[in-house]
Amino acid sequence: MENAAATAAALVAIILAVGPVSGAHLNPVVTLADRAFGGLSTNDAAAYIGAQVVGGGAGAVVANVIFSLPAVELSTHTRSSGGLWASEVVATFGLLLVVFGVVRSRRAALAPFAVGAYIGGAYFFTSSTSFANPAVTLARTLSNSFAGIAPGSVPAFVVAQLVGAALAVATIRVLYPSMTDCAAAVAVAVPHAELPASGPREPALSRAQRPETTRSP
User: Fold this and answer.
1) pLDDT tier at 22, thresholds 50, 70, 90
2) DSSP helix/strand/coil, 40
3) Candidates 1.10.150.110, 1.20.1080.10, 3.50.50.60, 1.10.274.10; correct CATH number of 2-193?
């Protein structure tokens, strides 16, 4: 309960903080899905994923240090079973459905809270405790704690997450046909803000809100 509550609350805070800068892309599968819907270019998606992996590794090192553990210590916690892999498919599928469903229903402002609530709940309804994030999965190899995952267990987890993401993209295309329009996809996870060339920062309309690109549902 402590881990779930801390993760859910931190996710809400982080998404609210960095959403206006990057759209709160904290997860490679969210980035890949956004790329599939046309919300990002291939180069931007690659840059986001690189930053996510590096940030996850750095976060694991910092977490080790603040809890007086070795800065880098490879995990020996083997996680390998059909139930765990199925859990990762389900967890990733549900996460993307929540993210894109909230945006498509024009409630993007609620995305931080929806994502936090979903991940907090997924701690309990999945046997894997819902990694649902390839960057986090890789980062957990750097900590030999209860939260770690042995490097040898990572490939199957990442494959399961990608399978869940592919199923989610297909489902979202059926449930929300207009999500294939990049104008709708670009708001994930929250609308980007833009910095003017000079002067104070002002909120900017997301591409989906601009009259020249808005389409009928």
Assistant:
1) confident
2) coil
3) 1.20.1080.10
Cα torsion at 115, 116, 117, 121 (round to 10°)?
100
Max CA pair span of the chain: 55
Mean pLDDT across the stretch 109-129?
Answer: 94
Q: Is 192 helix (H, G, I), strand (E, B) or coil?
A: coil
User: Model pTM?
Assistant: 0.82
**Contact call for residues 38 and 183 (beta carbons, < 8 A):** no
Q: Which two tokens stand for residue 54?
A: 């590096």
Residues ≥6 apart with Cβ < 8 Å to 20: 190, 191, 192, 193, 203
- C-beta of residue 3 within 8 angstroms of C-beta of residue 146: no
Token duo for residue 179: 């999500």
